[in-house]
Amino acid sequence: AIGKDVDYEKVARRTPGFTGADLQNLMNEAAILAARRELKEISKDEISDALERIIAGPEKKNAVVSEEKKRLVAYHEAGHALVGALMPEYDPVAKISIIPRGQAGGLTFFAPSEERLESGLYSRSYLENQMAVALGGRVAEEVIFGDENVTTGASNDFMQVSRVARQMVERFGFSKKIGQVAVGGAGGNPFLGQSMSSQKDYSMATADVVDAEVR
Length: 215
Prior knowledge:
Its cofactor is Zn(2+). The protein is mostly helical. It contains eight helices and two strands. The protein folds into three domains: 8-56, Helicase, Ruva Protein, domain 3; 60-150; 162-215, no CATH class. A two-stranded antiparallel ribbon has the order 1-2.
């Protein structure tokens, strides 16, 4: 049974791009967690934990995390959340976690608006805000710990920024130098963390301009 504390709208906003099969898998994972916890109902906590497990991998329960690392991860994730809160009309923060999962030391979840989910359209300002939010973790590390003590924790953030920036230049016509045309065989959805094809269908000269615009 599903608990009364489960808000289906919030679940929908935290699972953009999920298919029916993906949602079924999410609920199955939540049901398994509820059974392990000897609960009679699936609560919002089980669904939230199951979603984190699907997105980032299982919780590293046996991992020994020092207080220093916990502090660093907390500031890193807070950097994402703070920049997101400061960006006009950006998605609200849904949850912040410093529990290590998979390759991630922590996670910050944002909940897209219903209008944005239904339309599937993203403005240039939204994409720029998304990149700023992704870089917020590294900026927080620099501010709190200094340039010499930043970590590799932002590597996935940099990959996300590169994906979005390249899509803006190659597919969405947001570069004045490239113009309102689509170049390259980019595939995948950068907003869902999917990779893009590296196939190129333009000259080396154009490739140099694209790379410069992405940077």
